[in-house]
Structures are given as C-alpha cells and as structure tokens.
Write a structure and sequence with these properties.
This protein is mainly beta and 685 residues long. The chain has one domain: TonB-dependent receptor, beta-barrel domain (Maltoporin, Chain A, Beta Barrel). It is built from 6 helices and 36 strands. It has a 22-stranded antiparallel β-barrel. Strand 6 and strand 7 form a beta hairpin.
Length: 685
C-alpha cells in the first residue's frame, strides 16, 4: 500500500502542471556547435570512445547507437535493460527470469567482460540492468572491443565479481537538455496478471532542465523452472517492483560552458520464488552527480561522483508437506566511483584525454538461521585507483591514430571468507594497461579500422568465498556457489578490426573480426544441476569470431537490419583432461538478428524482431556439462495513434514477446516460460 500511495502522490503532483509539449530528446552540445554538423553527423554523434562528443566516422572503435525510438519499441519480456541491445552483433543475452540477472556473453566471453556505465560512470552489469528505468535514458551507446584505458573496472564482489571492459562497454546516456515540456502516463495489463503503470514528466525553467518519474509493476508471474528443478515451485512466483527516479541539468552560464548534473533512482523489488518461505526483498539505489566546464575552445574538464547501493534479502526454507522457514539471508554492497578527466584539443583536429579515477567498495553477506542474530559469511572492502591518458592524433583528414595507457591499482581487505579468517587478508595488485587503434577512410564510402587493448581484473570475494562451503558440494538443498580460495587475478588482451561500407540508398554494411585472450581467466562452472551449484576457476581462454551486419533506412517510414555473428571459444586446462579444450560457458557458436521498423503517416508503428541463438554449454566439464539450444525468439511491438490535438496525444500499444511460445531450457534448471504480452494506453500532454 505504501508503494501504491507513492505512485498516486506522484500522479497528483504531475497533474498540477499546465499545458505541455513534446521534447527533442537529443543530448547535445551548445546550439552554435550543432549547426556546424551535417544531418548524418548530427544523428551519429557518440561520447563513449573519448568522453567528448564526436562523429562515429572519426573514431577508431566500433560503436552502436540505440536511439530513444528504438528504446521505446523494445519488447522486454524479462524486464531487463540488456534486452534493448540484444539485437546487436556479438551480443548473446541470457536473462534467467524477470527476477534474475543476464548471464549472456559479449564477444564470446562472459557477462563480466563488458561493463555497464550510467553517463560514463560504472554501474553493475548484473543488477543495474534489472533496476534502472529506461524512461530516464535518452540513448544507449555500445562500444564493441576493448575500452579499458579511459574507463575502469567495476569493483563488484557479487555475482561473477569484478567487471572489466575487455570486450566492450555499454554506456547509458541520461536525458539532459529539455527543449519543451512533456508529461506522459501509460498503463498496461497482460500475461500472468501483470499490471504496469508509468509516469514521466520533464520541463525546463530558464537554464534548469529536469525530469522525474515512476514505474510500478505487479505480477503473479509463472513457473520459470524446468520439471524437477531445484526451484521446486508450488505457487505462482508473484512480485512487485517500484522505481522512482529524477534528474536535472543546470546550465550555469548563458554560453552553456558549465553544467551541473544530478540523477537519482531508488528501486524496490519484492516477491517470492514460488514457495511460502522463499521470499525476497531487494533495494537498489543509484546516484550520479557531475560537473563539466569548458575553459575555452581547446580545454575542458569533466568530473563525476556516484553512489551504488545493493541490498538483497532472501529466505531459505525446509521443503515438506508444510514448508517451514530455515533462515533469513542478506547480501549488501556499497560502491562509490569518482572520476575527473581533462580534454585538450590541439593541432587541427587531434585530442588528448587524461584523468584519474577512484572506487571504494564494501561487501558483506550474513545469515540468520532463526537464532535471532546475524552470522556473517563474507565481509570485505576494496579500493581501486587509476590514472590514464589517451591521444587521438589526426595527422591528415582521413586518418585517426589512437593510443593510451592506464595504471590500475586494486587493494582488497578481506575480513571474513565463508565465516572464517582469510589466509591472506590484505591483497593488492598494480598493472599497466594499454590501448591502441587506427581508422582510415579510403573515401566517403569505405573505412578500415583496427583496435587492441589489455585488461586486468581481480577475483571477487563471492568467487573466492562462495555462498556455501566446500563441504556442501552435492548436498541436496544446498544451492549456491562453492568457494575457491586459490583464484588468481586474470589478465586479458582484446583485438578487433573491420571495414565499414556506406553504400547507395542508405545501405550500410559492416564486417568486424575479434580475438580475445584471457590468461587465468575466471570462469563460472556449473558443478551440479540439483542441487544447483557452481564454482569459479582459473583457465586459459580464447574467443574469436566474425560479425556481419547490414542496415538500411529506406525513408522516414521504413528501416530494417540483419546481422550475424559466428564465434568459437576454447578453454585450456592441461592439468585436467575433463576441463581441457572446451567452450566458454554461455558462449554460442552463432547468433542471427533480423528486424524492421515501420511507422506510417496514419500513426501505426510495427517493430518486429527475430533473434536466433545457436546454443551453448553451461559449464566446462566434459562429463557433466549440458548443451542448451535457445533457438528462435520472435517479438513484435505494435502501436497505433488514436487521437492527437493541441492538448494531448493518445496511443494504444501491444508488446508481444516470444510469439512462437519457445519455452526453451536455460542453465541452473531455469526455462523461458514462453509467450507473453502486454496491452496498454499511453497519453502524452
């Protein structure tokens, strides 16, 4: 009732605003600089590769841009932000359920090798895509290939541990500059008795631009475990999720040379896993604060401060004719990232970027087996410092040469591991990382590029200490991650190269190859299916592949795309034949995406998409691993404008997920529950 009251209060406040209008959602430079760009450059400006806005045609890295319209028409069957980028080459999304994380791969290696960022500041690749609200996002930039010089690792100790941008990074760009006022409300109802309501408002007062909103969803949901699964559901796994967020951009001078930005979001996600005493109550908080200044046309500064809090509580039960509560459990993590960077434009069009960044992390787990107090399992803190520079040199108009270095320092202070003292409670590492790239435009229609970079990542405390003890291996009812105190830090090198063609009638063809090497790579291996147990181990891993993509924007009404990725991966372990010459878990051999968008003059929008996943293994043990074949998933977004006048716009929409009802199995005895749909109305004032 408290959450519903909050939603109603937000609605009441929003209705106080007077007549409002539509907004141009592009985050952009000052107006005078925008007029210097042609239309193609204006629509293809990205910030991720160098922390400053540049045309895609001027950077060495391969960057994809998901615009606001594409975000709006995404069909998210699992309520995970990762699904918005699932159509891109090299991406394999494997979200386990609406209540669980994505365990897919990027470039053939695991989910922790592509970081996620919010406005250039790291967030968690597992939790935050379940938490952050897409209504706050203006567009998404996805850099394929290494990005480990100007962007740091994320010091998560949960899930698969520390995350590094070896295979790329996903940058969620927030709404900033509001051109006109807008208020929208939408409500939808669909499968599993799911009710979703969303509110959003944006406005500008002089030089203050702001937005705020809220999303609430409740659902009975459905069984997402295979027959005989350790999930052992006896009832519908109902859940409630509430998100409240807001952001502002204050332009501190008329010339727009200085700006102060703020964004905050709180998410509450509670429910159960299909049994009476299998409840969970998760709270996630996100804060971003930024200050940017252009000292002159050549020199500028950016600074950011963030807070990421993760508080996950869950119950364990004793199964029986009448279930009984076994224990209450909690995982708590607090991460604070800070960075400051400077950019210097020199020569005719070259640029030097340099800066420093810092992160602190605190992580703990506890259990209360109904004794009235907390018994801590794992407890640690960590810090990370980095200093870096990157030069983009353009000696001639069609050539870009890029190079950079980062010194990274990580220190872990481990208080407890699996309830006991650590053998070595103070660990630290320092590494010098590098990145380089080149792009040459043969002419206005053909460009070649190549990139390389290194990465370094320390093992997370969950990987070292696990969530259960080694003695629990194979014990029925003891589900979780087994510890591995002997884990080593991992080092990686990523290479890629390709060619882009801008062909007549708006055809674009891209071919890209990639090769990734991991020394002592940390891989999550499924040890048992029931009980559901996994363990992190060190391996020598490689991944290589080829991506081919073709897109065309026929006109303002019709566009389409098709892309395919072929990948091979290999893990070497000469000490154990059962673990030698096997594929990386969750890494498919090939992926195909096909999609289109049709927006007619009569207000009808149809956006179908097809994703084909050729299949993958869940572990690296030849004797126990299982092959999974997700196959084809087809989604369709349909919207029709019902009314439009000077006061409001009214649309109806349908989000149809997995229309062929492909209820394929997933690792850890999960499954895709098949077809679902949402149907609703949206009014914009």
């Amino acid at each position: 009732m408290k959450k519903i009251a909050i939603i109603i209060l937000c609605l009441a406040e929003i209705t106080l605003f007077s007549t409002v209008y539509a907004q141009d959602t592009l985050n952009h430079k000052t107006v005078d600089k925008l007029f210097e760009l042609n239309l193609n450059e204006f629509l293809n400006v990205v910030i991720t590769p160098s922390k400053l806005r540049q045309s895609i045609n001027n950077i060495t890295q391969k960057v994809d841009l998901i615009n606001a319209k594409e975000i709006e028409t995404t069909v998210s069957g699992n309520r995970n932000l990762c699904e918005a980028i699932a159509k891109l080459p090299g991406v394999s999304v494997s979200v386990l359920s609406r209540n669980d994380a994505n365990w897919g791969t990027y470039g053939g290696i695991g989910p922790k090798y592509s970081t996620y960022m919010l406005q250039g500041v790291p967030v968690d690749a597992f939790i935050d895509p379940m938490s952050l609200d897409l209504n706050a996002i203006d567009h998404i930039e996805v850099q394929r290939g290494p990005a480990s010089v100007i962007y740091p690792n994320y010091l998560s100790q949960d899930f698969a541990g520390s995350q590094c941008p070896l295979a790329g990074t996903v940058n969620l760009i927030l709404k900033e500059k509001v051109e006109q006022q807008k208020t929208s409300f939408q409500s939808s109802y669909g499968s599993y008795n799911t009710l979703n309501s969303q509110l959003f408002h944006q406005n500008r007062v002089d030089r203050l631009n702001y937005f705020f909103g809220s999303t609430y969803e409740m659902s009975d949901y459905t069984n997402y475990g295979i027959d005989g699964s350790w999930l052992n559901m006896k009832k519908k796994p109902e859940y409630q999720k509430t998100k409240i967020y807001g952001g502002l951009t204050l332009l501190l001078d008329k010339a727009e040379k200085q700006k102060l930005t703020f964004f905050g979001q709180e998410t509450w996600h509670s429910g159960d896993a299909g049994r009476i005493y299998k409840g969970y109550d998760n709270k996630y908080g996100t804060v971003n604060v930024g200050y940017d200044i252009e000292f002159n046309d050549q020199f500028s500064m950016q600074s950011h401060f963030g807070v990421r809090s993760y508080d996950r509580s869950l119950q364990e039960s004793n199964f029986g004719i009448i279930d009984t509560l076994k224990s209450n459990n909690n995982v708590n993590q607090l991460i604070v990232p800070i960075d400051i960077s400077f950019s210097w434009h020199h020569g005719k069009s070259s640029m030097l970027c340099f800066g420093v960044d810092y992160q602190s992390a605190k992580y703990s787990t506890w259990t209360d087996p109904l004794v009235g107090y907390h018994i801590f399992g794992n407890k640690s803190s960590a810090i990370q410092n980095g200093a870096y520079f990157q030069e983009e040199w353009r000696p001639i108009s069609k050539l870009t040469l890029r190079g950079g270095l980062r010194y990274a320092y990580i220190k872990n202070i481990i208080d407890l591991v699996n309830g006991g003292n650590a053998v070595d409670n103070n660990l630290s590492w320092g590494r010098l990382l590098w990145s380089a790239g080149v792009r040459y435009s043969i002419n206005d229609h053909i460009a070649l590029y190549a990139n390389g970079g290194s990465s370094f990542s320390a093992p997370g405390l969950k990987s070292i200490g696990g969530t259960i003890s080694l003695s629990d291996r194979g014990v029925v009812g003891r589900n979780g991650q087994l510890p591995n105190p002997d884990l080593k830090p991992e080092n990686g090198i990523g290479l890629d190269g390709g060619i882009d063609f801008n062909l007549p009638v708006n055809f674009k063809l891209g071919i890209r190859g990639f090769y990734t090497i991991l020394q002592d790579g940390i891989v999550d291996n499924v040890v048992n299916q029931n009980p559901s147990q996994s363990q992190s181990i060190n391996t020598e891993s490689t991944s290589k592949g080829v991506e081919i993509e073709l897109t065309q924007r026929i006109n303002s009404i019709i566009s389409w795309y098709v892309n395919g990725t072929y990948m091979t991966s290999n893990i070497k372990n000469k000490l154990n034949a059962d673990l030698n010459s096997v594929e990386i878990p969750f890494s498919p051999n090939h992926i195909v995406n096909i999609g289109a968008s049709v927006s007619t003059l009569l207000g009808l929008t149809v956006t179908p998409s097809l994703n084909y996943n050729g299949g993958f293994y869940d572990g690296i043990s030849k004797s126990s691993r299982i092959w999974y074949s997700p196959g084809t998933v087809i989604n369709i977004y349909i919207a029709q404008r019902l009314a439009k006048n000077d006061l409001f716009v009214l649309d109806c929409f349908a989000q149809l997920y997995n229309i062929t009802n492909n209820n394929y199995d997933l690792p850890w005895q999960f499954k895709n529950p098949g077809s679902s749909g949402m149907f609703g109305l949206k009014v914009t004032f």
